[in-house]
Amino acid sequence: MEHSPLSKKAGNVPYTIFKKLFHTLIAMCNRPTRLALNLDKDLLVIDATMITVGENRLPWALYHGKRSGVKLHVAYTPSTGMPLQVEETRARKHDGPIGPSLNHRDSILVEDRAYFKIQRIDSFLAEEQSFVIRMKENVKIVRPTSLKNLHREDSRVTRDITCHLGSAQVRSKQRHRVVFFRDDYGNEIRVVTDLRTVDADTMAAIYREHWQIESFFRWIKQYLNIPTLFGTTPNTVFNQLYAALITHLLLRWLYQRTSKGEVIETLSFISFTRHFLAQNLPIDWLSEMAASLKRWRQSHGTNMLNDKYSIGVDYSSCFAGLFYMQTRR
């Protein structure tokens, strides 16, 4: 497909249609499975990523210097490898104000320092919103009390306390639990949480799940192919972003259904994506994918999937066509 007609069509269609389609597909595909952390709730990682280009490419979205860009604010479920919710803004928009729109009371929010605010964590306690948020290094610890929890010999946890947070001018009304631990490079990380019955080592493991969203962001940027934008208007750019997100969602859904079936060779999602794009999946994967899609069609009714798509290579080509739109050089 040539970029000219695609750009024209993408500019005319409100991007909110693609956004609504994306979130509709999420509701169909996103079925969390409990992680092996013995938690009562699923984890929900909140973070944002910027996609920048030259200032002349997107004059309506100037960032700083000679760059312009947009930002995706994402609520991501590590247990499925899929986003749960996405909001789009211009790159200058700070992460903090968007955070409340991504909150989900049924989940444990896992967030980085950009989302830390003393008033916010106090309100989370009142709202019974579970959270694990990395603290900024300059936040003062006031009247700490150590928790007597046993750690493993190989534990990276260095401290586990409850305390008030902040200065005399801005101080938390509630006492909060703070867990100190070291990352792979020896850097100290401090996370504040409302979880009082979860051991400190599990708290560190929960926060490490935050890094999964970085892999998702790298995937989007690698395969979105920003140098080849279909257009430069807000509608066109956001349509392309949501088309890329839909592509990721469908590929992840297809990968998960196929990988749980009768396949001999083990493939990572990245490897599956590369084989899928080249249309040279191993025969056991291709066969299981066809069988899985057939079962899905039968369970949802034939109207859910038009019979003109044969189960197998042609259906794979249909997905690959959408994917190709995002990766074309």
TrEMBL record:
Metal-binding as UniProt keyword: no
Pfam families assigned to the protein according to its UniProt record, in alphabetical order: DDE_Tnp_1 (PF01609)
Entry keywords, A to Z: DNA recombination, DNA-binding, Transposition
InterPro entries noted in UniProt: RNaseH-like_sf (IPR012337), Transpos_IS4 (IPR047952), Transposase_11 (IPR002559)
GO BP term (any one): DNA transposition
Parts forming coiled coils: none
Alphabetized GO MF terms: DNA binding; transposase activity
Lineage: Bacteria, Bacillati, Bacillota, Bacilli, Bacillales
Domain of life: Bacteria
Protein name per its UniProtKB record: Transposase DDE domain-containing protein
SUPFAM superfamilies, sorted: Ribonuclease H-like
Family as reported in the entry's similarity comment: Belongs to the transposase 11 family.
Keyword Amino-acid biosynthesis included in the entry's annotation: no
Transposase IS4-like domain sequence ranges: 40-250
